[in-house]
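Weekly structure sync - notes
Attendees: PM, LS, DV (DV joined late)
Agenda: review two folding runs queued last week.

Item 1: First target. Sequence and structure tokens pasted below for the record.
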Amino acid sequence: MKIIKRLLLMAFVLTLLAFGGVYFAVTASLPVLEGEWGGHPLTQAVKIERDSHGVPTISAANDADRAYALGWLHGQDRYFQMDLLRRNAAGELSELFGSAALDWDREMRTHRFRARARQTIEALPEAQRTVIDSYTAGVNEGVASLGARPFEYLLLMQSVRPWSAEDSLLCLYSMYVDLQDHDGSYERSLDFMQAQLPADWFEFLRPQPADIGDDSKFHWEAPLAGDVTTRLALPEMPIADLLSGLAPGHTLAAYHWADEGIPGSNNWGVAGSRSHHGAAIVADDMHLGIRVPNTWYRASWYLEDGRRVTGATLPGTPAMVVGSNEKIAWGFTNTYGDWSEVVRLVTDDRRSQYLTPTGWREFDYHEEIIMVNNHPNPFTVRETIWGPVIGEDEQGNLLAYRWIAHDQQGANFKIMELSKALSSAEALAIASRSGVPAQNMMLADAEGNLSWSVFGAIPDRLWLDKQWVQDWSQQDGNWQGYRAAEDYPRVVADELDGYLWTANSQVLMDQRYPLIGDGGYDIGIRAGTIAERLAAKTKLNEADLLAIQLDTENRLLGRWADHLRDVVDIQPEPVFAAELLAILDEWDGHAEVSSVSYRLVSAYRQAVLENSLGPVYQALTLKDYQGFSVKRIDNFIDNPLWLLISEQPDHLLNPAFVSWEALLLNSARTAFSELTLNGLPADEATWGLAHQLHLQHPLSRAVPGLGYFLDMPQQAIAGDRKNVVRIQGRAFGASQRMVVAPGREADGIFHMPTGQSGHPFSEFYQAGHQDWVEGNPSPFLPQQTIYHLKLLPAAHN
């Protein structure tokens, strides 16, 4: 008996020692917060102060020293995140995660981003290269200064690979992959759809801006300039004939519509003439897929002239991405413009040559080696004069990809110049020289001016008759260089009653439309909601703009609530009809956590969509063409859907139903069943129960049990996946919210999910997260300093 007790005691002690050892190893990699650290390659000492959220303020003598300090902070707080960004673009994730990442790495190697990054770095101007090199040195010294390698590498049993200058460009390329198509999926999907459908069906399901009517039932666009007037028409071919032709022999059921709502970013502003205090204000919330830690890293620093620059940086790069410098404030949303072309190649029988306007050419071949568990996996990239071969169309023809990300004009660090700009004119000039995924820039200056423009390179290209996938073998559609600054489209708030807005929708629908084009932009309902809110008040302040960022009204669903009430009127079961009406009586159109009616109406729209047009998309999906992606082409589905159920033509009724009435009643029952799926009474099935936030660390998805330590708390959250200003999904939403006027930064507001540090034992791991969830107006500027740190130059060591 004594032996058993001793063995149990020994096991307990060993377990404690094991846990203690793990705890010590993990906590040893916590970032350094206080003290003086010497031996750094600086011209003068750098002071770093942190507030209670871990937001640093850097005081340094020059750009290089500031970049070093920022790199040191990024390396200490976010190195694993930075490592994933560079590996994501370079196609090197398999080195960390093994064969599970091999397919993705092959896709990325097609673009040869590391080779492109190396070439671009070598061509950088000396001033930029000095800053990048200093930042790189800071990153590596920041990691080396930790008491142990970052905890993620301990868990993965991997060593830390040093940072290089080209890795910073790879982080920029990774944002390209996140914000634009890396495989031409938008144009390939539309080309496939156009080839499979009769012309009137294609135009019906995928209406272009010039095809959307000005009737309020269909017209949701809210551009800054221009308008659309042409009506949308129903197709002539019966849906039964269409389905039998697309999927002969298949019994088609309703297609489950994911309705993911990929676009989500918003930005807008008011000129000084429309603000309470007379200063122009910018509101910006960039939406991205959200992981733990968040994409951005908050920071603030002082310039040589005493101005303070504050905002969000991207770990891996030394730039202030969005923010304010007391003279200007700027924010971004993704343009979803046409920044790439898919080229259908004409090849010889052996596919060894392809045809160009100047004759036949040989492919260029590049051998790439992907390391998987220390074993080399060779991968060959074929390239053309237009870009790499990315796959085949549905007929087996090779496709090449012309993408701005492949050019040096598309990737540079000129965005760093924004932090020092003194005026709107200077900032707009920087916009036309910068190489980033093209953005809608909302820009305010200290004189009260507000303007919009495209930030990033705009190609100057020949416009062929629009085909989604183009044949350039006879007429070269290659880009003819890039647009000059004077060609850039711009709109100032004075032209529009003192306010501007963008929300991933088409900004220009006038003669300037071809400058941006269509790269999968969103329907304009969010933009219209923002414009309506801005117009509703004569004067606005920062709190008013935050309230718009948090707005959850879905104006599009309002008509669906009315439609469901009409369906209830024909419901043959009085008790069931009474339950539906009781829920609909609370309808106010807002996607709030406590709303049952929002969940019901949202589910009803979904069910009608799946029952009516769903079989068409199921039939297209059955073609099994890997270039086809429904989620890339469904942004405008509400226009044809509403016309369909408004007109209810017999020849377009899903043949699975005997009548439109039967289809709509089935949809109502399906929606109600979704509410009671988990056994709850329908009147307790709130939107919040179905709409949960679940932000995960990359490692917790792979290792059971880690989520308890690494993930953010799972909780209900307001908003919806599309058509509300507060776009929010399970792991998608506002990666930051910012409201700020240049010169009045103390009144500004900033939200960020998760926290500053990527270390789960850091006090900053979740700092500020709940303010983001609840929408509390947390301050833009760093607050009272609680930690002081000084980096000393080598002479002081």
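Item 2: Second target, run right after the first with the same settings.
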Amino acid sequence: MGGAVVEVGPEPLAFDQVVAVARDGAAVALSDEALKLMDASRAHVEELAARPTPVYGVSTGFGAMATRHIPPELRRRLQVNVVRSHAAGSGPEVEREVVRAMMLLRLRTLATGRTGVQPRTAQTLAALLNAGITPVVHEHGSLGCSGDLAPLSHVALALIGEGTVRDADGRARPAAEALADAGIEPAVLGAKEGLALINGTDGMLGMLVLAITDLRRLLTAADIAAAMSVEALLGTDRVFAADLQELRPHPGQALSAANLRALLADSQIMESHRGPDCTRVQDAYSLRCSPQVHGAARDTLAHAELVASRELASAIDNPVVLPDGRVESNGNFHGAPVAYVLDFLAVPVADVASMSERRTDRMLDRGRSGGLPAFLADDPGVDSGHMIAQYTQAAIVSELKRLAVPASVDSIPSSAMQEDHVSMGWNAARKLRRAVDGLAQVVAIEILTAARALDLRTPLRPGPATGAVVAELRRRVPPPGPDRHLAPEIAAAAELVRDGALIAAAEAVTGPLS
């Protein structure tokens, strides 16, 4: 495993720490403070377990069966049974990065000392992360209330040496075998521990953090795409002036407009039509209103970041162990705060992609492109140019609109009406992941198309920043010419969008973009 060690304690994790563990395989270590807090809360749980009075999650059943008092001799079996029975997911495997994020976030909640688990149980979870052992978690199974029960149960199942995992090499293996090879003793669950391992919103929160990380980059890439399209379509940059943007003081709008001004600076193409003969005083909305749409997306993202940061400071479990030793039931496991922002983000993702597709279409339409050849084809009629690349964009945008329908407005009661209102936050997170991937492809196609259009404006040269983006793209994608296989070029452009290479190329000229 690579990267610096991420220390896990009661303090909130940072976004980059979650990403480092989830994507980059960084190791984790529990802090001394976490071990001390877990020791103290575990002592409270053991004391309560010895009492004859029932305590939910310690000496009772769960959910609709919480009224049954469980005798001491059955409590260990109770904790194992809840993990086995709740590991009821189905469908495709969830991505490794999502499972690792979920494991880390559950570990951090355990490290707060508010769940009452034994320190050795948390240490076993950390050991799985450090060994690169990833439990197999399935797509379907969480309602996003009482936490991500089924997904977290598959993680907990691996912790006790049962179920299926993937090892550090990605091979599917029985958990008992993989743990033994890694020298990890399976956890032996005591009172309350099974419930503590599965009762959190860690899956949906992990996916939110990863989506936020990706969207920060994609919205900057969308600004680059818009700047290239404005330039290629002989649009005006006067509408991006700071004094015009200040008339509507949304912070995201100001940032996007500043990016566009920086990207279009010193462009020969822009200068070529600034004279008194230019009649292009107003561009189409997809060009002129880019800062307003991209900026609103940025402001929505900022709100999601705020919610995620609060969640990263939370201890989600039911019941919780309070510092004075009380074990109290609560509703903090409800996923609504996370579910709402996951749904919110899907809306601007669809809209930013929709605007990107409209700009692309303008570059391909001979009647609206300002003199560019039809479909940017080498020999229109013989060649189709980027005609079908726009079809691909349109298909993705249509899908993104469907993915923007909120999941969190749907609630299906469960557990014999004990859990009669649920968040569907896991579903919101799953569809947002698909939407983010779609946005990357749509923006990549716009950049690919705009780069071709800018090349066709020769001998006029684009600005230094957009020219640097074209040059970086040309390292992977050849310049305009007769028709060729487009799918690999789209894939290459999408990879450059996702990994930030095109942003880095622009920033080498402009300095940091917002």
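Discussion on item 2: The beta strands are 6-8, 28-30, 90-93, 134-135, 138-140, 164-166, 172-174, 320-321, 327-328.
Action: LS to circulate a short write-up before next sync.
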